[in-house]
Structures are given as structure tokens and as C-alpha cells.
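Protein in question passed on here:
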Amino acid sequence: MKTTATALALSLMCAGVAARADGTAALNDYPTEARADYVFACMTSNGQTREALGRCACAIDTIAAAIPFADYEKAETILRMRHEAGGYLAQEFRIPASNTMLRQLQEAQAEADVSCF
């Protein structure tokens, strides 16, 4: 029984970091810390309940399936810089490439809203 549980745990860990057979990145390329940050922020907005936890976890899983973590991280940085930085610094994050990254994140978040809430 213990051997089976250990083997299952190892296979789940490997599944999270392995590349898929077609050469693309695995869907679980988001670090646990990033997923937890998203869930905590989501729960702050949607209530500190068990139901909100499930819905928020579903949302980050949906986003992770839609866009790779590197793109998610860039879009989050652009959002922060647009809101927190002023003047010319904020303008550097208002270029067409930034808008495209944000649009991808917004589409993934909209899909998560429909799927999970």
C-alpha cells in the first residue's frame, strides 16, 4: 500500500513538470506559489469560503491551460506597471505587444469566469 502511494505521488510530481509528447510545455508549468497567489487574491474578491476556494482554483487551472506561465507572468507585470508606475515608465507598457499579451490574459480569465463561476 505504501509503495503504491509513493509511486502515485512520484508520478503526479513528474506529470507536473514533464513536456508533452508533441514537444510543447506541460500544462502545469505554473509554480505553486503563483497558483496560490492567484487563489488568495481571487478568494479576497469572492469570499473566504470553501466554495470560493474551489472556484478560484478552477480559475487558475483554466488560465494555466490557456496560456504558458511565462506569458501570464509578463501580462501580470504589464498590469502592475500600468497601475503602479506613472509617467514615462507606464507608457513603456502601453505598446501594441503589451496590449496583445493583456488581451490573451483577459480572454483566459473570461474563459475561467465562464467555466468556474
Notes: The radius of gyration is 17 Å.
